[in-house]
Amino acid sequence: MIRPLLLCLCVTLSGWSLSGSAVADEDADHAALKELVTAYEQAIAAGDPNSLKPHLADDFTGVMVTGEEVTNLAGLDAYWQKVQGYLGQGGKYTVEVVVPQPAVIVGDLAYAVGTTKDLAVTSDGKEYPFEGFWTAVCRRDGDQWKIVRIHGSMDALTNVFTITSLQRASTYSGVIGGVAGIFIGALLLWLVTRRRPAVAPIT
C-alpha cells in the first residue's frame, strides 16, 4: 500500500516540477520578445536601423507604415533614409510600441499584434503625431528570438498627413479661387466700361 502511494507522490511532484519549468521557460521567452520591442524603439529613435541586425532573421521581410515593402536589412535602412529625407536635416522620428497582450508562442514561432504612438518632427519644428497598427512574427534561433516579419499600417483617411494635405489643398484652392474671382471681376468691369455708350452733351 505504501509503494503505490509513494509512486503517486513522485509522479505528482515530477509533474509540478515540469510544469514549473515550462512556465519559467515561457516567462523567459516573453522577456526576450519584449527586449525586441525595446531594441526596435531605440533603433528608430537613433535613426539607425542597422543596430537591429542581430535581431533580424536572415529571411526578414516587412511592410512599413506607409505601405512600402522591405525584404532585408538594406531595404529597411533605405526606407528610413527616405523618411529622414522627408523630415529634413535635424528632423526626428520616434515610436512607442504598445503591446496590449503577451505574444502567442507556438513551438519556435511567436506572433503579436498591437499599436504604435508615432511622432515625426520636421527640421522646421512641425510635429506630426499619429497612431499605427502592427503585427510581428518572430522565430526562435538557437537561444535567441529574431524578427521574421513585421507589418505596419495606419488609418488611410484620418491620419495627420492626409488631413494636413487636405487642409493645404483647401487653402490653395481658396487662394486660387480668390485670385481668379478678382481677375474675372476686373475683366467684367473693363468690358462693361468699354462697351458703355458715350452720353451726348446737353445743349
From TrEMBL:
Gene3D superfamilies linked: 3.10.450.50
Span of the signal peptide: 1-24
Positions of transmembrane segments: 172-192
Domain DUF4440: 33-147
Entry keywords, A to Z: Membrane, Signal, Transmembrane, Transmembrane helix
InterPro entries according to UniProt: DUF4440, NTF2-like_dom_sf
Domain of life: Bacteria
Keyword Methyltransferase: no
Protein name as it appears in the record: DUF4440 domain-containing protein
Provenance organism: Lacipirellula parvula
